[in-house]
Automatic annotation (TrEMBL):
This is Large ribosomal RNA subunit accumulation protein YceD. Pfam families: YceD. It comes from Bradyrhizobium ivorense.
């Protein structure tokens, strides 16, 4: 694994799992798609996310056209990722299950839709996310699934029974706030001045 994020360079690095849906071919009744990442996509995802491995990645999407030319994409991404326990350094697997609810819109509509999002932020209602752009007439549900999978990764994976063991040492009698003062007294203050 490389030390960097792996997000520079070839497009494959940026989008390890690409599955394009042509919006012109989405019927008025909507489209249901299920996708499964192949070995190459899983390996590329693991490199980008700096994981030991991506064991599996599956996504199911419903894409519904809206009257304003945008598309409402809902779905779920499920997968298993191989990580390393931050406590024991043992290899472990974690399950990921993330829901997706995103609006895709033609790029020219996004500024005005973003303004609506800004206006909604001023109200007490729940703020919708700004829409994602439809790029070249396509929605990349593979990228959408990858982003959701990455969001679900535990940044501090631990085995269920792993606990941090604190190093407990016997207290050093010389290691207390007044140890330095005591040492000074013993060095210079133990002798009584001569004379008298």
């Amino acid at each position: 694994m490389s030390g960097g994020s792996g997000r520079q360079g070839a497009p494959r690095d940026r989008d390890p799992w690409r599955v394009l849906v042509n919006v012109a071919q989405i019927p008025e009744t909507g489209l249901h798609r299920e996708i499964e990442a192949d070995e190459a996509a899983r390996k590329a995802m693991a490199e980008v996310a700096e994981l030991r491995e991506v064991v599996s990645a599956h996504a199911a999407f419903d894409i519904m056209p809206r009257r304003d030319g945008s598309y409402h994409v809902t779905g779920r991404v499920q997968g298993r990722v191989g990580q390393t326990c931050v406590v024991t350094l043992d290899p472990i697997e974690n399950a990921i299950d993330e829901e997706i609810d995103v609006i895709f819109a033609p790029p020219e509509q996004i500024p005005q839709m973003a303004d609506l999002v800004d206006e909604a932020e001023d109200s007490d209602e729940e703020t919708p996310d700004p829409p994602e752009p439809i790029e070249g007439g396509f929605i990349d549900i593979g990228r959408l699934a990858t982003d959701a999978l990455f969001l679900g990764i535990d940044p501090y994976p631990r085995k269920p029974d792993a606990v941090f063991e604190r190093m407990v040492e016997a207290p050093d009698p010389e290691d207390h706030p007044f140890a330095a003062l005591k040492a000074l007294q013993e060095k210079g203050g133990g002798k009584k001045p001569k004379g008298g």
